């Protein structure tokens, strides 16, 4: 196996107006198990990854966020995987996401939030994170309302504002020398 991460820093806080849009942009691009652009192309269509997805985060204190895509794959697929990461992010930025993708992402993300609140570990994690911020679960409620109200234009505009495929840092780990001999 080999592992790849593609990342880019973003100047965003979790209270910035664009944050909810970036939450859904990440979800459409690489969140939500196998129903996302990265999984559909890299795992399902091309079959070059065992697991693929993306994550994003934004700090509560500083404009310090990050966008990360990752994949586990066979080392001989390194070039195809790297190309697919770059092409899928470039396609999202150029063409944008669709209204259908946004509708699915909203529903799935909001449902995931509701399920997370039924789990003791999720509630405890959030309480621990919110305590030093003086934050309550009203933050979550407000974020969910903002997410539910998003338009596809807002999500596409935020994605284009914060991400640039040419600034993507890609790190690969694996036995590439052995794979090259095959």
Short summary:
The chain has 182 residues and is an alpha+beta fold. 53% of the residues lie in helices and 17% in strands.
Strand order of the largest sheet: 2-3-1-4
Low confidence ranges: none
Helix count equals 8
By oligomeric state, this entry counts as single chain
**Could you tell me how far the N terminus lies from the C terminus, measured between alpha carbons in angstroms?**
14 Å
Share of residues in strands: 15-25%
**Secondary structure: helix percent:** 40-55%
Query: Order of helices and strands, N to C?
Result: EHHEEHHHHHEH
Number of strand segments: 4
The outline comes out as globular
Class inferred from helices and paired strands: alpha+beta
Mean pLDDT: 93
Strand count, sense and closure of the main sheet? 4 strands, antiparallel
């Amino acid at each position: 196996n080999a592992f790849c991460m593609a990342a880019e820093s973003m100047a965003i806080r979790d209270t910035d107006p664009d944050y909810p849009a970036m939450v859904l942009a990440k979800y459409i691009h690489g969140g939500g198990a196998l129903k996302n652009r990265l999984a559909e192309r890299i795992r399902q269509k091309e079959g070059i990854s065992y697991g693929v997805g993306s994550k994003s985060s934004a700090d509560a204190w500083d404009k310090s966020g990050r966008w990360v895509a990752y994949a586990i794959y066979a080392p001989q697929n390194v070039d195809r995987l790297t190309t697919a990461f770059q092409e899928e992010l470039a396609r999202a930025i150029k063409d944008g996401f669709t209204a259908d993708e946004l509708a699915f992402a909203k529903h799935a993300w909001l449902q995931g939030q509701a399920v997370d609140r039924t789990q003791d570990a999720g509630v405890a994690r959030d309480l621990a994170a919110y305590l030093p911020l003086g934050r309550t679960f009203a933050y979550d409620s407000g974020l969910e309302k903002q997410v539910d109200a998003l338009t596809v234009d807002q999500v596409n505009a935020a994605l284009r504002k914060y991400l640039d495929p040419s600034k993507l840092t890609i790190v690969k780990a694996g036995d590439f020398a052995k794979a090259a001999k095959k």
